[in-house]
Design a protein that fits this description.
The chain has one helix at about 5-10, and strands spanning about 35, 50-55, 60-65, 65, 70-75, 85-90, 105-115, 115-125, 135-140, 150-155, 160-170, 175-180, 190-195, 200-210, 220-230, 235-240, 250-255, 285-295, 300-310, 325-330, 335-340, 350, 360, 390, 400-405, 410-415, 425, 435-440, 445-455, 460-465, 465, 470-480. Mean pLDDT is about 85; it is low at about 1-30 and about 365-385. It has two domains: about 1-25 and about 355-480, Jelly Rolls (Sandwich); about 35-350, Tachylectin-2, Chain A (5 Propeller), CATH 2.115.10. The two termini are about 35 Å apart. Strand 4 (about 65) and strand 5 form a beta hairpin. It is mainly β. Strands 2, 3, 4, 5 and 6 form a five-stranded antiparallel β-sheet that branches. Strands 23, 24, 26, 29 and 32 form a five-stranded antiparallel β-sheet that branches. A four-stranded antiparallel β-sheet has the order 7-8-9-10, with no helix packed on it. The structure holds alpha-L-arabinofuranose. Alpha-L-arabinofuranose (AHR) binds near residues 106 and 164.
Length: about 475
């Protein structure tokens, strides 16, 4: 079965299932409110600085700086993170790291690029002080942010001290933003294009260096850059001043999303002259910064994730009380974020609305039909679920049809039940960027496939899959992507 057949098919990727219109599923666990910190000090008093919180397949995932290891937690609701188990990503149990990347593992971020996950993190050589930090990349061996991972590369960067790498895609290009300099201060924000997730293309350019007093509290530092793209604008939100000072704050650089990002002239006058999110002693919030952003409810809600302390000057190297907080933010007319004031701890905040995920169970019936209640299966231990085995004719699997209630961009997840033989599954897409997945490796009974995003109009839609062998589909899930 090759791309010949695929190419010949007027590839229109739809989701089709017996013409029934489906509504969003009931049954997904939801919460109406949550409280900060979403990640308080743990039982041993460990904090959770530099939180990278993202959504995937209907769950919340978080990475943070954690005592020399790269870790994640995952939960169905924000309030669930505090009690969720901390899982180690790196180094794997029993593996010791080469000395040059064995100390002070900081600020991990898990990013999905293509059909793999990449973790960007900072580390230094044990025993040499904090001036030799480099940025490293791990690559997932599977389709899940949980890993397992393999070491991929050190990013080749000219600054002796380079930390806090983050990546973002814009207009078909992949970029790296990070903090660095000759020493840990003054630290500037740099930007580079990547030719692939682990290779820097050309020379990075400096896009921000500390210039205002609010960027020079204790030490002159710009770090923890994070991209926020909205309304035709690229906002690079960065953290300013020393992370141990009670005056750590967020700053903002804003440029047109279509500009030449690697031209230094693009960034002239891009810095907003005041902090955009800062200490609020009246609310007992000190040193908010180095976080991340996510959206929910199909892009109608946006969330600011950050660390802060409830006592001034208890940040990095000064007491370690940086806990993870989340709060909503809105947008100004010009595509820049309006973060407002940091929220006091302990208040009930309105929780994110659950995504209107559409889920269809594949039943062992003559034809696909939605279960009586299109429910959400989150737990991949659902071995017991009956799947429907589709047998290919000339590589084509039977079409599946159902109706879409709301036109939009959806991320498509397929859950297939493994079989005795290894195999493959291909999604035929309208843009011919077909998605290919290996299937059913004997050791995996349930395989979650993230087949990327597709635009779907309202009405009857169908999915065309290709395969070389029978495929047992368990569940199809469509998650609305942000607008
Ligand atoms: O929290 C550890 C480090 O402290 C982070 O990587 C950086 O943003 C800050 O300097």
């Amino acid at each position: 079965m090759g791309s010949r057949l695929i190419g010949a098919v007027s590839a229109i990727a739809y989701i089709v299932l017996t013409g029934l219109l489906l509504t969003a599923p009931a049954g997904a666990q939801t919460q109406s409110s949550f409280r900060n910190p979403v990640l308080p000090l743990d039982a041993s008093g460990n904090d959770s600085p530099d939180p990278w919180l993202f959504r995937h397949d209907g769950r919340y995932w978080i990475n943070y700086t954690s005592d020399g290891q790269l870790v994640y937690r995952s939960a169905r609701v924000l309030d669930g993170l505090a009690d969720a188990r901390e899982h180690r990503i790196w180094p794997p149990e029993g593996q010791t790291e080469p000395v040059e990347r064995s100390a002070e593992l900081w600020a991990p971020e898990t990013h999905r690029i293509g059909n793999r996950w990449y973790v960007y993190y900072t580390a230094t050589t044990a025993g040499t002080g904090i001036y030799s930090h480099r940025i490293y990349v791990l690559e997932s061996k599977s389709d899940s942010p949980a890993g397992p991972y393999r070491f991929k590369a050190e990013l080749s960067l000219p600054q002796p001290y380079a930390i806090d790498g983050t990546v973002f895609e814009l207009k078909g290009k992949l970029y790296l933003a990070y903090s660095g300099g000759p020493l840990f201060t003054p630290a500037s924000i740099y930007l580079a294009e990547l030719s692939n997730p682990w290779t820097v293309k050309g020379l990075p350019i400096e896009v921000s260096t500390p210039e205002y007093d609010w960027e020079k509290q204790s030490f002159a530092i710009n770090e923890g850059p994070e991209a926020l793209i909205h309304g035709g604008r690229l906002n690079l939100i960065f953290s300013a001043s020393w992370c141990g000072s009670g005056l750590y704050a967020l700053g903002r650089l804003t440029v047109p999303a279509g500009a030449d990002l690697i031209d230094p002239a693009t960034w002239a006058d891009s810095k907003f002259p005041d902090p955009v999110f800062e200490t609020d002693a009246a609310r007992g919030v000190y040193g908010p910064g180095h976080g991340s952003f996510f959206s929910t409810n199909g892009g109608k809600e946006w969330w600011n994730v950050y660390h802060a302390t409830d006592q001034a000057g208890k940040g990095c190297f000064t007491g370690g009380l940086r806990t993870t907080r989340v709060q909503r933010f809105t947008w100004n007319w010009d595509g820049t974020p309006r973060f407002g004031r940091p929220a006091s701890l302990g208040n009930d905040l309105v929780a994110p609305k659950p995504d209107r995920t559409i889920a269809i169970q594949a039943e062992l019936k003559r034809s696909f039909r939605p279960s009586a209640r299109a429910s959400r299966i989150e737990d991949s231990r659902f071995f017991g679920y009956a799947g429907m085995t589709l047998k290919p004719k000339g590589g084509k699997l039977p079409a599946m049809k159902f109706g879409i209630l709301r036109k939009g961009r959806y991320r498509l997840y397929l859950r297939v039940l493994g079989g005795p033989q290894a195999g493959w599954l291909k999604l035929v897409r309208p843009d011919a960027r077909n998605v290919f997945r290996k299937l059913a490796r004997p050791r995996e009974r349930v395989v979650n496939l993230d087949l990327g995003t597709i635009n779907l109009n309202r009405g009857r839609r169908f999915l065309r899959l290709r395969s070389g062998q029978p495929v047992t589909l368990d569940q199809i899930r469509l998650q609305p992507e942000r607008k």
